[in-house]
Specification:
Blueprint lengths: L2 E4 L5 E4 L7 H5 L12 E4 L20 H12 L4 E4 L12 H18 L3 E5 L11 H17 L3 E4 L3 H6 L3 H14 L4 E6 L16 H14 L4 E7 L3 H8 L7 E4 L5 H6 L7 E4 L6 H12 L3 H8 L3 H7 L7 H11 L18 H14 L5 H14 L5
Parallel strand pairs: 3-4, 3-10, 4-5, 5-6, 6-7, 7-8, 8-9, 9-10
Antiparallel strand pairs: 1-2
Length: 390
């Protein structure tokens, strides 16, 4: 069987799908034992309820059974789940009420199966507009209290409201210092770059990344006992390595670089990054297997498994990067993790058919689909909807 896939220029090309998954995909089986050499979180997506009568600006309608089943899938391979993060469409379809319910349900599921979980703490219960620093602080405190009440580790996410309210680096130092002193357990500090969310431009008090880095490091240096690690999502490997080398002893770096993750996780003679990545949603089993190889000290084998996936990741995260979630959910549908390609907020329409076709092609060439015939049939059905016949 063949498919006719559209290219960016509008022409159709003939593609012959695989008939079997790659050997390393077929050979990988669930293995819930923790990874040992690196701490690895997958930022997991949410599954929409396709039968809900809703609209893009209405509260999210979530299929809770399918959403939690996907988290059990990730835990079954020994991965941690980073919950209610950007991949779960925080601020892009999932409001705070939905995120709070997601955190409560996922935390309970993690306890039931013994899975590791960390949850995003932000300020997205605040209405759009300008808020005082005091209001931002109270919003953070509310979310931090909820996450800690579930027994989950907290991830202090970057806040749009703080970016709008802060007038100087000192405002960031004061507010984060206040939150870290309150935190019951060490947290992960998250620096999400403007390529993921344009409203976060100038975070840490400066559009100059060097200056922003210095403020970020000041926060960490003042409270190293309250910081488990940092998650850096700037898509700049050099900057991450330089920052990683300046961290206090005991503070980890969790890479959020979906362009350069193999080299950053492998590390160098001066250290390495752990991982908290959106691309490890579709790559979960492969990523877990690669890190298990790394656990044995086999860096070359780790790179041989993970390096070939980078082209797919860079495609999914190409500008506008914030719409990478569409490709992530698309691949989950093709892989059989959900029965439909519908997203909260109608975000399934955020990427073009040529973009999705290329994502399918790259994933199929890698042999990532457990059942390539299912993926082919679903890709064919999408092509038909767009008027492309075999």
């Amino acid at each position: 069987m063949t498919l006719r896939l559209p290219s960016a220029g509008g022409e159709l090309r003939t593609y012959t799908p695989r008939t079997e998954p790659a050997h390393f995909v077929a050979a990988v089986s669930p293995h819930p034992a923790p990874l040992t050499s690196r701490t690895v979180f997958s930022a997991a997506h949410v599954v929409a309820d396709p039968y809900a009568d809703t609209s893009p600006d209405a509260p999210a309608a979530v299929d809770w059974d399918a959403t939690l089943a996907f988290r059990r899938h990730l835990w079954s391979y020994g991965l941690g789940v980073a919950e209610a993060m950007d991949t779960a469409q925080r601020g892009m379809g999932l409001d705070w009420a939905g995120a709070a319910e997601l955190i409560r349900r996922s935390a309970a599921e993690a306890k039931a199966v013994g899975g590791r979980i960390a949850c995003g703490v932000g300020t997205d219960q605040l209405r759009p507009g300008v808020h005082t620093l005091g209001e931002v602080r109270v919003a953070y405190e509310e979310q931090l209290a909820l996450v800690e009440a579930t027994g989950s580790q907290a991830i202090l996410m970057a806040s749009r409201a703080l970016a709008a309210a802060a007038m100087s680096p000192d405002d960031y130092l004061d507010l984060y210092g206040h939150l870290l002193r309150q935190a019951a357990e060490p947290v992960v500090l998250h620096w999400l770059g403007p390529m993921f969310d344009p409203a976060l431009d100038g975070y840490w008090g400066s559009e100059d990344l060097d200056a922003a880095t210095e403020t970020f490091l000041q926060v960490i240096a003042a409270h190293p006992d309250k910081i488990d690690g940092i998650k850096v999502s700037l898509l700049d490997a050099r900057r991450e390595v330089e920052l990683r080398r300046r961290l206090p002893r005991g503070v980890r770096c969790y890479t959020g670089d979906d362009f350069n993750y193999p080299e950053l996780i492998a590390g160098d003679e001066q250290g390495f990054s752990h991982a908290l990545l959106g691309i490890f949603d579709p790559l979960g089993p492969v990523a877990a297997e690669a890190v298990r190889v790394l656990d044995t000290g086999d860096t070359k084998g780790f790179r041989e498994l993970l390096d070939p996936t980078v082209e797919l990741s860079r495609h999914l995260f190409q500008p506008p990067t914030r719409f990478y979630k569409t490709g992530v959910v698309f691949l989950a549908w093709l892989a059989g993790h959900q029965d439909h390609f519908t997203m909260v907020g109608g975000l399934q329409a955020a990427r073009s058919l040529p973009h999705l076709a290329r994502a399918y092609e790259l994933a199929d060439e890698l042999g990532l689909f457990p059942d390539p015939t299912v993926a082919e049939a679903r890709m064919g059905s999408l092509l038909n909807v767009y008027g492309v016949s075999r």
